[in-house]
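Appendix B. Raw example, untouched.
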Amino acid sequence: MQTTRDQLSGPEAKTRLVEQINACLRSGAYSRALQLLRAAADEFPNDTILSDLEKLALNGATRKAEADHLITESQELFAERKSAEAIQLLRRAYDLDKNNSLARTILANALVEHAQSIVETNWLEAETLASQALALNPAHPTAKTLRNLIVEQKQTSSVDDWVEQARKLHTSGDLFAALAWVAEGLAVHPDDPKLSQIQDAIQRDQAARRRQARRGDLEDLRRMELEIDAAADPVVKQALAERIQRLAAKYWTDGEILAIANRLLNQLGLAPPQSSSAPTKKGAAIIFHVPRPSAAQPSSATSTQPAPIPLPTSKVSPPAPVPPENVQASTAPIKATPSTPVKIATTPSEPQRAASQSAIASSAAAAQVSQRKQPTKSKLTILILVSAAAILSIGAIFFLVRRHHAPLVAKTPAAGPTVPAPVISAAPVPAPVAPAETTPDPPVPDAPVSSGVATEQAAPEPPPVPARNHGTLLVVAGQDDAKVFLNGKLQRQLTRAGQLRLPNLELKDYIVQLSKPGFQDPPSQKIRIRNDGEATLTFNLQPQPRLASLTIQGGLPGTAVLVDQTSLGTIQPDGTLSIATVTPGDHTIELRKDRFKPRQLKKHFVVGGNITLAAADVALEGAPGELKITFTPNDANVAIAKGEFLKIVSSGVALNLAPGTYTLTARTAERFTRSSTLEVIAGQSRTLDLSLAPGGMSKWDDPAAWRHEKDSFTRKGGDFVLYGAVPASGTFLFSAMPAKGHLLQWVLNYTDSRNYILCQMDDTNFYRTVIRNGQKSETISVPDKGDKKSFRTLQIRVSSTEVVHVIKHGDSWTVLDRWSHPGANLSQGKFGFYIPGNDQVSLASFAHYADLNLH
């Protein structure tokens, strides 16, 4: 039993772990994701899913570190008033890490500031920048104000401004943008001749380019005709057919090109013949419809041909009349829609047809006699006589049909295979006239009617004997006066004694539905009627509920829900709550939870209705949290940001902040910037004490061993000379050179003399070697030329997942090496220099900026 429990818990634990890691990756908490993965390495060794997640986390951490570095560099450029270069770095930072709220906020603000600086001189560029800022933050108030200002400038701009920009766009070849720009200018300056002239010029250029492109495509078609003659391989033919169809699709209204394309496709032998009715094979070429200038008009005989008169019947509608044979068919294009022919079981007998024709002829003759005998009478008299003759003829037809004609029954056979669309060519093809597909409704049996009693109230009679090839359906509802629907058609009878019997139904499938006021509609049921007896369907009609219900989804677990100040429950851990006992009417719903502001909603409940509140409806605003930040040195610049919110922090001054995740940025007098995220919890007070000053020479294990000479410190020998910061996370910034010896050497991740990372530089290269258990496991070499007898400035960023070396050349920084090792915490151990024997190292400057510790 225990083994089974363990087998079940393993997959569940892994599923929960994967969900947590994915949540961290989505929010940008890559360090937390790596911590979870390392903690689970022993429980799930060599798991492919976790390995893939670890790669994603490492990649995300790398991108975040690079984005943070770019943000730091951008701040330095802003300080030097190099806004354009700073914005480019911020764009790169945002592209690297879309979850970096600091990059998004700073980039949006920078775009708006730059737009404000140029809006008076170049409002077009300012509009572009404002739109980009609003794409990053749609609620940016300054960007909205700036956009409104630009709209006003557009309204007051001169015609020359619009014409100049339109010419620039036209010259650059962007005709669509040029036409759109001219259209916008005409909206401000309607009917201006300059704008109209340049619009005409752009349209002429556009038309000329289209004609040139068409000539090129025609030449391409003619070249393909030569290729068809030489093509024998079916694969080559298929490729040619695809090229022809792609080209023809560009000119779907061009008759000449479509005609050539059709001819080439037929020449390839890949298109179906016109007379073929077989289904088109998959992958076959499609012949294009060639438009005609006009369709053929019907002849005069067609227009004067009298329409056939339908024969009325007592119970069944007659089939659609068949047009006379001499009526010319329409030449409109035929759409490829499947149709099923309708066969008529019985047709009028010869005496009936003769009678109908005789009656029609009589009415026509009467009209002619009236015209001959009374040529001077008014048209109204002639019309009255013709109408009377027609009425008499129709009455005679009706009498004959009632006496001699049997009811017509329309039968629809099973649908056959789908017929493909016919090939459309330039010549008109007469369209065959087919009767529309019909599905006859089942005949509704006449209920017996007794004297003085309505049909619905007649007492049920014994079931009639089903006709041949017909069946009977008994619908059991359990309630009287329920409506019954067959295939969506309401039956005349209502249920009596809880049931309804429907005889003489065709042998086929029916969809049966029930409905009664005050009861819920039960699910429809399907049944097949057979001629081997009576089929029965039973429904369960349930009364309509007299109460309403409330459903909450995506709520905050533990939130109390009150309706009119009466508690009705608490939102469950999965964020849901269902209440089915709400009295219909107007009610006030209130949501309460500690450390959150209460929220009220007014809703109207109806009988049997359900009010559903989604996450956005029940979201609670957290009560403000208090945050106090103290930092040294006092001249540091500390800011806290969240979305559009940006606040400069004064040391020791408490802030009341809305709950959520904020980005804290600290910049020292040396212009070194660090950032981290912190969480403000609703209703909680929190104090942070930040030491922003960098660590200097005093933290070396033996500071006195460093000899101070002029502007540098020199150390002789000592092998591994270590710095006292543990863990060694943060940024090491120094300028160093080998005063004696061939190499400048330093170590990272040092735990003992057999386990560390050794880095070296000579005149031409940078080297990195991993030492584990006294053995070299990895060595890389990166070219970097320099003078080993001059100071080199290096910046080393160390985190738990990555070590990045950056070297300064002139005024720019270049990444030398970026290294990570899955499963290892690279911030453990110490940083230091390796000075063997009598070698010496000189430091012109040295500082260690520890990561912000916000926990």
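End of appendix B.
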